[in-house]
Amino acid sequence: MSKDQIKIFCPATIANISCGFDVLGLALGTVGDEMVIRKMAQPGIKISSITGQDLPMETERNVAGVAGMAMLAALKYTNGFEIEITKKIKPGSGIGSSAASAAGAVWGINQLLGTPCSEHQLVEFAMEGEKLASGSAHADNVAPAIYGGITLVRSSNPLDVVRINPPSQLYATVVHPHIEIKTSDSRKILKTTISLADGIRQWGNLGALVAGLFQEDYALISRSLEDHIIEPIRSILIPGFEDIKSGAIAAGALGCGISGSGPSIFALSKGKDTANNVAKAMSGVLDKIELNHDAYVSEINTKGFRILS
Amino acid sequence: MSKDQIKIFCPATIANISCGFDVLGLALGTVGDEMVIRKMAQPGIKISSITGQDLPMETERNVAGVAGMAMLAALKYTNGFEIEITKKIKPGSGIGSSAASAAGAVWGINQLLGTPCSEHQLVEFAMEGEKLASGSAHADNVAPAIYGGITLVRSSNPLDVVRINPPSQLYATVVHPHIEIKTSDSRKILKTTISLADGIRQWGNLGALVAGLFQEDYALISRSLEDHIIEPIRSILIPGFEDIKSGAIAAGALGCGISGSGPSIFALSKGKDTANNVAKAMSGVLDKIELNHDAYVSEINTKGFRILS
What we know:
CATH class of the largest domain in chain A: Alpha Beta
Low-confidence stretches of chain A: none
Radius of gyration of chain A: 19 Å
Function (chains A, B): Catalyzes the ATP-dependent phosphorylation of L-homoserine to L-homoserine phosphate.
Number of strands of chain A: 12
Shape of chain A: globular
Number of domains of chain A: 2
Family (chains A, B): Belongs to the GHMP kinase family. Homoserine kinase subfamily.
Mean pLDDT of chain A: 96
Catalytic activity (chains A, B): L-homoserine + ATP = O-phospho-L-homoserine + ADP + H(+)
Strand content of chain A: 25-35%
CATH architecture of the largest domain in chain A: 2-Layer Sandwich
Domain GHMP kinase C-terminal (chains A, B): 211-284
Enzyme class (chains A, B): transferase
CATH topology of the largest domain in chain A: Ribosomal Protein S5, domain 2
Oligomer: homodimer
Structural class of chain A: alpha+beta
Largest interface: A-B, 40 and 41 residues
């Protein structure tokens, strides 16, 4: 049991699921980073290598470093950990790159220490990493990464996370167009007020979406995957968004929206075959406008992180 | 089977359940009107008696009459029905007095005709009665009356109602202070815009409340029963509201808020004993400020209407 080293899979995540802006996220199964975490005698966190992306190695400038340090401080742990990160999730893609690293560090350390911390605590530590990445300690991506499945963040402060088991046939398709949208920019264009009527529509949809997830009612999930507040504003930053979305729906998707703050676009489908068809349709639109992109199809990852070795 | 007359119980309902403003309602079991509906040879709806309240008897000015006529027109039914109403729910109390009558008429007629109409259709007919009563064809009260249990109205137009089974130990307490608040007035004081931050808080709470209902997680239900948008504005119309609410919570209620557009105040509790204690606490505050009121304790009515004879 007392391993000195662990290699883990760190899932990508979709946050801001349509009507669940700022509260609803899910973990992906087939898209993610890898991380090796190793006990070391010296105190603190040492980021010893980052492969695949050019990111800061200094502990206090690295999300995994900051999250890990928050955990060690809370545990009053006097030794430390060395971390090697293999990035496959591109930073700025909108599928939780920083969350995978921040949450991965604390999840992995927790495993090496014999799981002294609850998932709730791990989310709180990982949020410190998110604070470094985006300026706000949000849990939208770290919560689904750590809890697995679908998570609803009822409140960030105090933290209150509700885990929802995904319907068994729910699949996600994600396309990542290779353009850059800064999270801070994509937050800046949002209005700070909304109409009460739009608010009612949004919470009606979110309540129904949660009910649809519990009842495994795919038609209800589909009807509820609407966002009349954020999507109309943010989607103007994503070339081809309307065509990609209508292509996804025409190919059978239950719904489609912006992942996180973009530019990635997600669709949810019933069944893997449909999710593959949806990927083709979404890719097709991006090919037509000659926008390089990645496309992924994944089941919803009910476990979150997992140990590879 | 082919009865010519039916006597039914018409449940009172709580709408606007805290964070579920305009979407979430529930049916009460022990508070309601009675209605006798009888086939008649002449076409149309005849309101032959109203006991307990002074309300218009003319078909086109009576909510049961209007709802019933909408149903007969849709069915192209050429004979008619006579309706006797015994009002126990006071109009203007905020627990669905008009909904009980409008929905009662169409539910009862549906029974006498061998249930040709779905619950969805019955809600649509009953909404015509609500339109007469309040100027808008809302489903907040008629939906829980007809479906029973807890209902979420995802959308009124097109109508989309989600039925949620109530947790088995959930009880409602309602106090009705004898003051008059017109629905139209209580709508007028609402702001037409809200902050995005308040909106996010509201839909986070509603999503969590729905999850709590499915998971029978009373602590989560309790944490989610918040309304930072409507309640702070409307509660100023209800004398003693803050004390009544804090009294209810101190007596063990999971949450407390304004029923419909007031002046009734509801609390939800786990278990009947707690609900009774909560009723005492709420009544106590109203007694102290010498405000006449009724107080009710009820299980959540999972059936909605029921046949008495």
